[in-house]
Amino acid sequence: MVIFNGAYYWIFYRCPIFGNNIDDIFYAAVDRFGRLKKIARIGFTENLIIYKWDAYSYPGSTEILLGYSHGSYHRARTGTISGDSISWSAPTSSTSGTARTVSVIKSTDGYFWFERAYNIQSCKGATLAGIFGSSCAEITSSYEGTAQYARLPDNYILVLNSDYESNYMSWFRHKQDACGTRQNFAAKTASYHLFGRLGLTEDGNGDGHAIYEDTSGYLQYRKYSYSTSSWSTPTQLDDDIEYCTIGVDADNVVYIFWIRPSPDNNIYCKMYAGGNWSNRFTAFAESSHPTGVSCEHRSPRSRALGLVWALGNEIRFGIYPPLDEDFHVEKRDFGT
After folding, report:
1. What SS3 state is found at 333?
2. ∠ CA(288), CA(289), CA(295), 5° rounding?
């Protein structure tokens, strides 16, 4: 997980502490040229394994919204950036059975939250204190869902959701106490997770950009037009996919990164600008097969996007296009 506030890239990752049965979330501060400046532990007090986490920061803001799930709890915290440090609020939490994943975003007028427990999902919003209340009726009955958010200009958020047992992905617009109609987005294979195979972001014009794996295992792209609240027809980007991620820079250039199944060790990229696609090219090549990939959701920087991925026991970071040598560190070397 990586965000950029104009001065530093902030890389969030989970790391075991005191053995392998307790987790904390750490962050690395990396300057705009890819040089590591600081590593810090956020400092949770719960003696549990953190299952999943998500972070969001609007370009130019000093605030970070962090969500994480562990045990029977979903928790939210806000962080305030100051130089190369972040100060964190106390956690706000709810108990939701066996907590699994969270997705977080801040719209133009409030916080929004998608939480997944073992057999219940909810799309929620409002203030941070009320983030665990007032769920959206369109999503509460789904099973094992994967959700992605994009921020719209009118206080709404765009939600793209994949339910484990459903044979299609759905989308809707959501606002506090004003959930839109759930609609069919694309076909998917039923009883199949799309973790790491579903991405959504927005550009500076308020339009959305989505990527997903279709029923053939192909990587597809669709654009959401804010003015008409409609989606483009799919554009196929590749014919095989293992992980993918999508982000937008300050010039509204869309970057799509993805990994193909082993033994392919490359991280591929296509860029979308002015209505045209670049050719597929290799953004980064590795010595062994990378797993998991994440980039900035929406960057305040022009013609550059931060990217993180896993390589064995390492977390690796790169800026594309490269401005300096790749930054990489091993999880086991991170101090507490």
Report:
1. helix
2. 120
**138 and 124 Cβ atoms separated by less than 8 Å:** no
Is there a contact between 297 and 316 (Cβ–Cβ < 8 Å)?
no
Q: How far apart are CA 314 and CA 57, in angstroms?
A: 25
The full DSSP string for 256-270 is: EEEEPSTT--EEEEE
Q: What is the pLDDT tens value at each position of the chain, 336 positions in all?
A: 899 998 999 999 887 776 666 788 888 999 888 888 888 888 776 667 787 888 999 888 899 988 888 777 778 888 999 998 999 988 887 766 677 777 888 777 677 676 666 555 566 655 666 666 656 655 655 566 788 889 998 888 898 988 877 899 989 888 766 777 889 999 998 888 888 899 999 999 999 999 999 999 999 999 999 999 999 999 999 999 999 999 999 999 999 999 999 999 999 999 999 889 999 999 999 989 998 899 999 999 998 899 999 888 788 999 988 765 556 655 433 333
Residue with tokens 């750490």: 26
Query: What is the distance between the alpha carbons of residues 162 and 198, in angstroms, rounded to a whole number?
Result: 8
Alpha carbon distance 289, 248 (integer Å): 26
Residue 36: both structure tokens together:
């590591």
DSSP string, 210-224: EEEE-TTS-EEEEEE
Asked whether the CA dihedral 287, 289, 291, 294 is positive or negative, the reply is: positive
Distance of CA 236 to the CA centre of its chain: 21
Cβ(156)–Cβ(112) under 8 Å? no
Q: Do 135 and 180 meet the contact criterion of CB atoms below 8 Å apart?
A: no
Write the CA distances from 288 to 17, 74, 202, 280, 284, integer angstroms.
Answer: 27, 34, 32, 20, 12
The first and second tokens of residue 69, run together, are 């799930």
pTM: 0.90
What six digits make up the tokens of 167? 């044979």
Q: How far apart are CA 121 and CA 258, in angstroms?
A: 27
Which domains are delineated in the chain?
196-336 (2.120.10.70)
